[in-house]
Design a protein that fits this description.
By secondary structure, the protein is mainly alpha-helical. It has one domain. It has helices at 10-37, 42-54, 62-65, 68-95; strands at 2-3, 6-7. The protein has a two-stranded antiparallel ribbon with strand order 1-2. Strand 1 and strand 2 (6-7) form a beta hairpin. Helix 1 packs across helix 2 and helix 1 runs antiparallel to helix 4 (68-95). The longest helix has 28 residues, at 10-37. The protein is elongated, with a radius of gyration of 20 Å. The two termini are 25 Å apart.
Length: 111
Amino acid sequence: MEAFGRRIPSDVLRLAVAVSLWGATIIAVDTIALLQVTDQSLDHVLFEVISAFATSGLSTGLSAQVGDAGKIILSATMVLGRVGTVTIAAALAASQSRQLFTRPEERPIVG
């Protein structure tokens, strides 16, 4: 992978994809759970969940209207957004071993 004339290592690219997919999965699951608990529209719920995941402090007022189950879902979303992505990135980065050598490149005949 190359960007702006620089090469991005494949382990960094895998880490970025894993963290992005982790965040998207949390947002999708929490949006579906909050839609089941409340009778609000998708755009209000999605805004609230993304705001909670990003811990931005923005709200449409939905958090005051939901019951205890909705508040638990939004609270868990805030915790996972703040701690979860950093934790998964650190865990994945620590689990990868670095190679101190490179194998020779081969270009086989295709076709």
